[in-house]
Structure formats: structure tokens, C-alpha cells
Amino acid sequence: MRKILTILLLSSIALTLISCKRDAVEEEETPVLTINVESETWIGTHEYFNVFEGVTVTDQSEIDYTEYLTVTSENCEIDEDGYVNIPSILMECFFVYEVLHDGLFARQLSTLWIASTHPYIPADIQVINEWNFDDESEIEGWNTHTGSTGSIDVSIEEGSLKLVVTSGTDSIDPRIDYMGIPFEEDGWYLITFTVKSSTETKKIFFDIGEFDLDTGEYQTYDRGYSHNLYLNEEMVTYNLFYFIQQDCNNGGIIIELGDLMNSVGIDATIWIDSIVITHLKY
Fold first, then answer.
1. Do the Cβ atoms of 85 and 118 come closer than 8 Å?
2. Where are the domains of the chain?
3. Helices (H), 48-156
4. Over the stretch 57-102, which tens digit does the pLDDT of each residue have?
5. What DSSP character marks residue 64?
6. How close are the terminal C-alpha atoms of the chain, in Å?
7. H-helix or E-strand spanning residue 125
8. In the CATH hierarchy, which top-level class contains the domain 124-281?
9. Quick one: how many helices (H) and strands (E) in the chain?
């Protein structure tokens, strides 16, 4: 009987040790942070917007990391309390939400739309150009530019335009563009596309305009406002609105892939898909 009790006691101790080990392993699980923020928000021109309001950061155990959250924007000013100063010429603000704490990192992108300047009820919608990049023929018409140090390799991969980029010493080294698109004066245009990058630290410049045939200089069509976009490692869809101030039959898309502010010397592979240019008529 004493022998049986001893065996039961040892078994109990062993099970307790195994349970403790399991608990220790569970306790050592690395936290995965999630930034809980809407990907898109709409407001009116006279409304206030605070980038921190309603936003939380938690891990899989619901531990709160919100105090370590930072928010930046390339095109809208954020004051020390988190309120956004929206210039009247802008239709949207792009925000980068980031958390870096004790070796843990998370990033989330969010867009603020200003509804009263947003042409959201067009009388007619006309798609004037579209690229799905299903085969090599859809590369035709896309031009590349490189300087002394940058490089770009263009191909089609799994239904996306694949750009293998070595960043040069300025924003247009390298660059890719597509010209010959007719834009009407005082016209609203929506450009949608999806994009991802092999590294989240890569940023691109996206705009529409034209190159002067005599000087080769680039001229933007928008009202002095263009788009600097941080990329994710997962596909993100962008909806960019432009107001064109002049007639031009030789306009187009320009995407600069070289050195940009806070994204210097970053080489990356970039995938772009489903580019659609739509004319919003009123």
C-alpha cells in the first residue's frame, strides 16, 4: 500500500511540474500588438478630428499599450494634443500609427476624408484607363527612369506589376510613369490601386501630371498637393482624388521610388495592382 501511495505521490508531483512548465511557456508567449483604428474616417470641413480619440493598442491578452502610440502625417499637421490642422485645399489626410516598446512594433495606416470637398455624388463616372497586369502586354507604355545609382526591374508576377527597386540618391532615381492620358480642365479624378512592399519602411511618391516636351521638367496637375505613401507588407488599397486645373492630352501617372523623407536608402520589391483612373463628372 505504501508503494502505491509513493507512486501516486510521484505521479502527482510530475503532473504538477508539467503543468507549471506549460504555464511558464504560456507566460513567455511574445505579445503581438494590434492598433485598433479605423482604416478610413469621414468628417465635415468644420468638424474637429483628434488622431488619438477612440484608438487603442492591445496584445492578444488584452494588455493595453496605448500610451506608447505615436501618429505622424506627411500632409497634415497634428498638434501636441492630437488635433489635426486641415488646410482648406486638402481633401484627405494620411496618418501612420506606430507603436515601438520594449522590442515590440506595430504599424497601421489610416485615411481621414474631408466630406465637403469630396466629390462623392457624381452625375456620371467614366473609367478612362485601367491596368490589371494580367500579362506582360500591360507593361507597354510604362516608362522607367534611373539616375547614377538607382535601378528598377519591371515585370509581371501573379497578376501584379512587380518593381524590384534599388533606391538612388534622390526621389526620382528610380521612377516609373505612364503618359498620354487626356485630363480635362476643372475635372475631378479618382485613382484607385492596391500596393505592397517587401519592407514597411519604404515610401513612394504618387502623382498625376506631365513632362514638358521641351524642358523635360515635371509639372503636377493637382492643386499643389501630392501623395507620399508609406507601404505595408500586405496589399493596401488607396483611393486618391485629384482636381485638375488645366486641359492636357499628354498627362499621366508618375511614381517616384527613390529617396524620400524618412525613407532614405531603402531598397525594396514593390507590387502594384488594379490601377483604375476614373473621371467623376458633374
1. no
2. 34-117, 124-281
3. none
4. 999 999 999 999 999 998 888 988 999 876 555 567 889 999 999 9
5. B
6. 94
7. strand 124-131
8. mainly beta
9. 1, 20
